[in-house]
Amino acid sequence: MEVISDSKGDSDCGGGKAPAMSEPEKQVLLDLVDEFKLILEDKRTDFGTTSKKSKAWRSVADRFCSSPGTTYRTEEQLKTWWSNCKKRAKKQVATNKRCIIKTGGGKGKNKLNMEMDRVMGIIPGQMKSLENLFDDDAEIAVIDGVETIDLPEHEKIIASPPKKKSKSLEQESRKQKDARSSLTDMEYEEHRMRMKILARARNSYYFKNKGRS
Predict the structure, then answer these.
(1) What SMART domains does UniProt report for this protein, alphabetically (predicted)?
(2) Structural domains of the chain, count
(3) Residue at 145 is within a domain
(4) Could you tell me the residue range of the domain that residue 83 belongs to?
C-alpha cells in the first residue's frame, strides 16, 4: 500500500485529498463491493442493517488499503467513489435507452466501458428497474444524478376547465329557482292572512267581553 498525502484531489473521492483512482485500484474496490454487495446495497434503514453496512464498509476499507498497489483511502472516500460510479452507470444506461427509443430500436449511442459493465453486473436489479421505466412512449431524463420520467401524452394529467352548463340545465335551474320564489311568496301571503284573521278574532273577543262587563 502506498501512502500519499500531497496529491491533487479526486472529484470521485470525498472526505479529503486523494489521488485519482488507478484502474487496478478500481478493480480491487469493485471486487470488494461485489463480495459485500448484499449488505452494502440493502435498502433497509433500520438500526441493524445500518450497523451491518458500517461494519462491511470498514472491512472493505481495511482490505482495500492492505491490497498491493493501492493508495491509502478512507472509508468515506471509497463509499463516495462507489456512489458516484453507480450514478455514472445509471446515467449511461438511461442515455443509451433514450437513443434506442429515438432510433426505433437501434443501438445505444455509447458502449459501456469495462467499469460501467462491471457495475451493472454488481447491481443488475437496480439497472433492470431503471430500464423497466421505459416503454415505447415514455422517456427518462437524468438531471444532477436524479432520474425523472417524461410521461407519454396520453398518460399526462391535464387540468381541464369546468364544464359550462347546457342551456337546458340553466333553464331547468331557473325554473326551480322561480318555483321556490313563488312558493315563498305564497307562504308569506298565507301567513299574512292568518295573522289578520287572528287579529280580528282577538278584537272581536275583546269587544264582546268589554260589553259584558
Answers:
(1) SANT
(2) 1
(3) yes
(4) 23-153
Residues whose CB is less than 8 angstroms from the CB of residue 77 and which lie 6 or more positions away in sequence, other chains included: 13, 14, 15, 16, 18
Task: Provide the grid cell at 4.
Answer: 500519499
At 77, which amino acid appears?
Answer: Q
Q: What is the pLDDT of residues 16-37, one digit of tens each?
A: 567 899 999 999 999 999 999 9
Q: What is the pLDDT of residues 146-197, one digit of tens each?
A: 444 444 444 444 444 555 556 677 777 777 777 666 656 667 677 678 777 8
The reply to whether 183 falls in a domain is no
Distance CA 55, CA 193 (A): 94
122: amino acid identity, one letter? I
57 domain-assigned: yes
Position 51 in a domain: yes
CA-closest candidate to residue 15, choices 81, 64, 74? 74
* Range list of H helices, 103-158: 114-122, 124-131
